[in-house]
Amino acid sequence: MSGRIRIIGGQWRGRKLAVPYAPGLRPTGDRARETLFNWLQAQVPGARCLDLFAGTGALGLEALSRGAASSVFVERDRRLAGRLREIAGDWPGGDRMEVVQGDVLRWLGTDERSFDLVFIDPPFSDSLQGRVLEALVDGGHLASGARVYVEQDARDPEIDPGERYELLRSKTLGEVRLTLLAVS
């Protein structure tokens, strides 16, 4: 897939992001982002965000556009991380972005910060959602009242919130399931 997606709300509304071809890259579409940010509208202003498996950065950039204080983007692909660094240097307010090029689980094992909003959208074939949810809690990465968004293939079993999370919302849009969790 290649093409463009656009930021749909806030100060960067209408700005376009290039979507280069990269294996497993599947940017969150406009409809899913609109649904997600309707769910999160009260939590976004001033939030410290973490965009895991960032890809194009659409989720973290949408949050920043809507008033989040900062966003850390973690992306393994060097080219995609480089593109996010270019955006950070070019867009007004890009100084609120931090881009980490590396493996998500390894990074979560070394970083000690906590976040208010976390976006988890790995390549569906990797099935990393559950491991990342555990690593977030185990590493103390979730602030009090944190919200965690998980995107997965609609055909996969639904996320089990277990004892560590509370299921707030879940919706299927086409082939994608959107799940919003809170820390228990």
TrEMBL record:
It is an enzyme of class 2 (transferase). InterPro entries: DNA_methylase_N6_adenine_CS (IPR002052), RNA_MeTrfase_RsmD (IPR004398), SAM-dependent_MTases_sf (IPR029063). It comes from the Bacteria. Keywords: Methyltransferase, rRNA processing, S-adenosyl-L-methionine, Transferase. It holds the Pfam family Cons_hypoth95. Its EC number is 2.1.1.171. GO terms for molecular function: 16S rRNA (guanine(966)-N(2))-methyltransferase activity; nucleic acid binding. The keyword Transit peptide does not apply. It catalyses: guanosine(966) in 16S rRNA + S-adenosyl-L-methionine = N(2)-methylguanosine(966) in 16S rRNA + S-adenosyl-L-homocysteine + H(+). Specifically methylates the guanine in position 966 of 16S rRNA in the assembled 30S particle. Belongs to the methyltransferase superfamily. RsmD family. This is Ribosomal RNA small subunit methyltransferase D. It comes from Wenzhouxiangella sediminis. The lineage of its organism: Bacteria, Pseudomonadati, Pseudomonadota, Gammaproteobacteria, Chromatiales. The gene is rsmD.
